[in-house]
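Risk register update: the risk of archive-format incompatibility is retired. Evidence:
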Amino acid sequence: MALDPAAITTERLSLEPLRPEDADEMAVLLDDERLHEFIGGRPLTLIDVRERYAALAAGPADANIRWLNWIVRRRDDSQPLGSVQATLTNGKGGLTAHLAWVIGTEWQNQGFASEAAGALVEWLRKGGADTILANIHPDHRASAGVARRAGLEPRDERRDGEQVWRAPA
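Archived output:
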């Protein structure tokens, strides 16, 4: 499977491959109940975030799956704003990327999620991803807007109660 994680830059952002050392500053950003309104669950503790980031950096045991994760930072001051991720699966239909994103509530409604997700979609297309998807809660209008601005389109398909959005071929 190709597509080794690399830094991705946009006009305002730097998407930097996630490192376990990022856990401490990201735990503060992610410690917000409002981020779980549509995905469920609750914020992880600092120890849980550290363990999660170590596991993400190590990758899955299945050789046909790769986890690519980036910390979204403002370019001008390196302030972490959130994260984007792509879970890559190598299957019969080629390379499929399932996307997800989260931007801290303090930095929402400023176009950062759309800019980051759009850059990730472009990077994945250039890297040879055959299918690019995101699953979005049907009531999460903000994420639907991010998906649309990133070039994904809603499909008449649901997975785990969420609507599937897909980049046109």
